[in-house]
Write a structure and sequence with these properties.
- The chain is mainly alpha-helical.
- The chain has three domains: 196 residues, Growth Hormone, Chain: A, CATH 1.20.1250; 40 residues; 204 residues, Up-down Bundle (Growth Hormone, Chain: A), CATH 1.20.1250.
- It has 20 helices and two strands.
- Strands 1-2 form a two-stranded antiparallel sheet.
- A hairpin with a 5-residue loop joins strand 1 and strand 2.
- Helix 13 runs parallel beside helix 19 and helix 15 runs antiparallel to helix 16.
- The protein is globular.
Length: 472
Amino acid sequence: MDTTLTNDISSESTNSGFILFITIVATIGGFLFGFDSGVINGTVDGLQTAFNSQSVGTGFNVSSMLLGCAVGAFFAGRLADQYGRKSLLLVAAIFFLISAWGSGVATSSVEFVLYRVIGGLAVGAASVMAPAYIAEVSPAKYRGMLASIQQIAIIGGLFSAFLSNYFLADIASGSTQKLWLDFEAWRWMFWMEIVPASLFFIMLLFIPESPRFLVVKQKTGEASSVLSKLYGSHAQNKLTEIEASLSDDHKPQLKDLIDKNSGKLKSIVWIGIGLAALQQLVGINVVFYYGAVLWQAVGFSESDALLINVISGAISIAACIVALAVIDKVGRKPLLKWGSIGMTVTLAVVAIAFLNAEQSVDGKLSLNEWGPLALIAANLYVFCFNFSWGPVMWVMLGEMFPNQIRGSGLAVSGLVQWSTNFLITWSFPMLLAGIGLAGAYGLYALFSLLSIIFVIRYVYETRGVELEDMKG
């Protein structure tokens, strides 16, 4: 690999404005990922009233959407190898629109869940395709920073959904009350997503297909044209590198993930699976999905619990900005390692605090003097996750696989990531009832400890490495 070429491509010859535009468009998918995940929180009362069902909005229905995400992530990776990264993002945008509209017009629980699963397919597809697409059009020098914007977009989407829900309910004096055009506020909460989903679809029409996908499909002329827009005078050199990395000259297949000599999954695939699973096993989505329930369980009022969630959201955004600023300077592996260490310590402190909580005669818990320490440790945990495993896992999955197996590797890793998300989300209420908050957080601390060992032993650095030089 000609390092001079790499440096040139990463600096003055790069069309930085065009690449930034492409990145922003792709990360609208991340915003919708966050919005679609967060909008459900403000609509539970309206759903239960409209459908006369206590099952809608429960943990299983939240989890069923996550299963849709798992299916979407798996098939998106494979279909993207056949039809293109941009094409799959366009399909995801259409699914976001269908889900947003359908969830608002649904007249039964079954119909509602169907539209939410369609939204889950879109979320799963966007979660793996957006970072992969960004990685495939970005220079190595800035790839981590650009791909990290995805995590900020996800949290921004969550935050926007919470704000939208709050204001719509406030205007209507309740989520179950009529708002505009004689429709209830909770329906408008879902319809608000139509705006960013439409913007996503329209803006996708103005970005190119991944040049690496075009080379795989032997559309050399189109690939050269895209590379010229991205890398200027070095387009031909980059085209040659991509073609060399795909010299096996066969269509990407799932069986490419199997090592021909040993007959087992390639080590790089196991690393991707490990990263995807551990990102969820450390329990971060317990904070996102059950934060208010968690803090109320240890004595905080509903108002205080909601305020803690807002603070955690702000801390998450700040942590992602820190990651964005340093990921291409210090690398991926150091961020993962120190994030894991920080999460292990802070989760252990939270578990100890919950272990020392006192139970009153009415069954309620109180942290008493442990309260401030638990709050500080919990928010430090959120910070540690969001400057490390939150963005870095998606960055690495988008860039670590060789060109030939990127789609298939993302398919398997995405399936594992969303399936583990489902497991954690589904199991937390049972853990809460079975081993309590201290036991649950102790378990998450154990997985954080395991993640330290995993990073040190198995994860390798990808900072500054061109995608054509990634080894399987």
